[in-house]
Amino acid sequence: VKLLSDVPRAAGWERLVYCLVVNHLCEVAAALAERRPGFDPWPAARRELSRHDLPEAAALLTAPTLPGKTNLLLRWTGADGAAARYLPLPNPLAAAGAELP
Q1: Is residue 3 part of a domain?
Q2: Three-class SS of residue 49?
Q3: Is 92 exposed, middle or buried (0-12, 13-18, 19+ CB in 10 A)?
Q4: Which residues pair with 65 in a beta bridge?
Q5: N or C end of the chain: which has fewer CB within 10 A?
Q6: Cβ pair 73, 85 in contact under 8 A
Q7: What's the structural domain count of the chain?
Q8: 22-50, pLDDT tens digit by residue?
Q9: 99: in domain
Q10: Range of 49's domain?
Q11: Is residue 24 part of a domain?
């Protein structure tokens, strides 16, 4: 079992972005857009993230891609979750021309 203190900050941030944004925020955004056609949830998410004074949050808002974990590859190869690899996914938080407060 790895302790949080054993995880490098960059690796922890990558995992947080994957779990929070890719797994959950994208799913919530898709559900909202499905129920409310034309609704774009990403400006509100960008505004909320821009309120935090973390260099990683600012970088997240301008990064062209997000880390997408290769879960299926892990299953096929029988690898441990710690051996996860990430592939780039388009970042909906970095919309062209997005304005931050």
Answers
A1: no
A2: helix
A3: middle
A4: 90
A5: N
A6: yes
A7: 1
A8: 889 988 988 998 999 999 989 999 999 99
A9: no
A10: 8-94
A11: yes
pLDDT tier at 64, thresholds 50, 70, 90: very high
**How many residues in total does the chain contain?**
101
Distance CA 2, CA 83 (A): 13
pTM of the predicted protein model: 0.71
Residue 85 clears pLDDT 90, i.e. is over it: no
Q: Which residues pair with 86 in a beta bridge?
A: 69
Amino acid in the structure at residue 2: K
For range 7-28, the mean pLDDT: 85
Helices (H) and strands (E) in the chain — how many of each?
5, 2
The number of C-alpha atoms within 13 Å of 79 and in the hemisphere containing its C-beta is 13
Among the listed residues 56, 61, 68, 64, the one whose alpha carbon sits nearest the alpha carbon of residue 18: 68
